[in-house]
């Protein structure tokens, strides 16, 4: 491919197109959209420019025909940039991609969402960009995350997201079918099962700090009790049912001073924290900040069900 072989490039392009179409289907199911799909395999002249810049700045050294950047002074070892046969590596392409992306987008920040296994590589990349003197070197950030225990691509033990979503949906559907009376009242059970299944996986993945590894457990994530996606969906559905059956619209301008019970004051205080929770999540780039907040709020509302009566009370 690097030599421009047309048949190899055509095959690569076919696989890439098919892969992206599948990605789009899966992401659409999760409500996720990306404006651009671009990877290191698409880096063009940026690679040769990166090599030239490394040479011009004196950062590039040769060792038995291979080209390296010596980062030992920064405790980052020697970074291989080009093999002795002329083949480039990820670092070369990543530098070239950074150059091309800045020229195209003039970004304020470039965030690499890559697993913690690549911490060392990203540190080498960022340090090399800094040593090159690129004016946007301080705009790079690595958002790392842990792994799912027991899954390995090399060992063939990976469960693909598409299969996981399908399995989760089917398992939730089985749970719903177990209560035949309620199941018959459900409108579009296929859709409901799909939403519950996706919620189970998303909350499982984002409930803890992203750097932590975790063990995937169907029994735990599909539970309607505890800190799970189905529990949050149940809490939300129960509130919607209350609003619907009470025939009272939610009034954002209601006089909350009339709510004097301890449990309601606790809920109001928690709701008031929402802007701060969002700000903290954006600053730390930790989804668990929002997830834990929602879980805590749901638990408080669940406690209120036991002591606060709404339906059937006087309007005042």
Radius of gyration: 26 Å
Helical proportion? 40-55%
Q: Give unreliable regions as ranges.
A: none
Strand neighbour order, sheet with most strands: 1-2-3
How would you characterize the overall build of this protein?
The protein is 53% helix and 8% strand. Helix 4 links the parallel strand 4 and strand 5. The chain is elongated and about 80 Å long. The protein has helices spanning 6-29, 46-56, 90-105, 119-131, 161-177, 180-183, 189-206, 218-221, 229-246, 262-272, 274-284, 288-307; strands spanning 60-63, 66-70, 78-82, 110-113, 140-143, 148-149, 214-215. Helix 2 (46-56) packs across helix 3 (90-105), helix 7 (189-206) crosses helix 9 and helix 10 packs antiparallel against helix 12. It has 316 residues and is mainly α. It has 12 helices and 7 strands. The strands form 3 sheets. It has a 3-stranded antiparallel β-sheet with strand order 1-2-3. The longest helix is centred in the N-terminal third of the chain and has 24 residues, at 6-29.
Index terms:
about 325 residues; mainly alpha; 3-stranded antiparallel β-sheet; about 55% helix; about 10% strand
Topology (SSEs and partners):
Elements: H1 6-29, H2 46-56, E1 60-63, E2 66-70, E3 78-82, H3 90-105, E4 110-113, H4 119-131, E5 140-143, E6 148-149, H5 161-177, H6 180-183, H7 189-206, E7 214-215, H8 218-221, H9 229-246, H10 262-272, H11 274-284, H12 288-307
Parallel strand pairs: 4-5, 6-7
Antiparallel strand pairs: 1-2, 2-3
Helix pairs in contact: 2-3, 5-7, 7-9, 10-12, 11-12
Describe what is shown at a glance:
By secondary structure, this protein is mainly alpha-helical.
């Amino acid at each position: 491919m690097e030599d421009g072989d047309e048949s190899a490039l055509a095959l690569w392009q076919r696989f890439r197109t098919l892969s992206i179409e599948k990605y789009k289907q899966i992401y659409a199911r999760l409500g996720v959209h990306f404006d651009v799909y671009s990877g290191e395999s698409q880096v063009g002249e940026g690679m040769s420019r990166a090599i030239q810049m490394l040479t011009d700045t004196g950062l590039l050294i040769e060792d038995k025909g291979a080209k390296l950047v010596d980062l030992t002074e920064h405790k980052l070892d020697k970074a291989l940039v080009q093999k002795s046969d002329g083949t480039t590596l990820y670092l070369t392409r990543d530098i070239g991609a950074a150059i091309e992306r800045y020229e195209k987008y003039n970004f304020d920040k470039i965030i690499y969402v890559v697993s913690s296994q690549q911490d060392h590589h990203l540190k080498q990349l960022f340090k090399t960009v800094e040593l090159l003197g690129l004016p946007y070197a301080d705009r790079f950030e690595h958002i790392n995350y842990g792994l799912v225990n027991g899954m390995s691509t090399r060992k063939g033990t990976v469960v693909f997201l598409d299969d996981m979503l399908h399995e989760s949906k089917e398992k939730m559907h089985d749970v719903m079918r177990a209560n035949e009376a309620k199941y018959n009242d459900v409108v579009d059970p296929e859709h409901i099962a799909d939403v519950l299944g996706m919620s189970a996986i998303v909350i499982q993945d984002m409930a803890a700090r992203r750097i932590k590894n975790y063990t995937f457990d169907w029994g735990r994530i599909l539970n309607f009790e505890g800190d799970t996606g189905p529990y949050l969906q149940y809490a939300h559905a129960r509130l919607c049912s209350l609003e619907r059956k009470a025939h009272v619209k939610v009034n954002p301008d209601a006089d909350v001073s009339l709510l004097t019970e301890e449990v309601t004051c606790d809920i109001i205080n928690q709701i008031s924290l929402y802007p701060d929770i969002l700000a903290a999540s954006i600053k730390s780039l930790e989804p668990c900040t929002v997830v834990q907040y929602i879980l805590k709020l749901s638990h408080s509302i669940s406690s209120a069900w036991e002591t606060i009566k709404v339906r059937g009370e006087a309007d005042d």
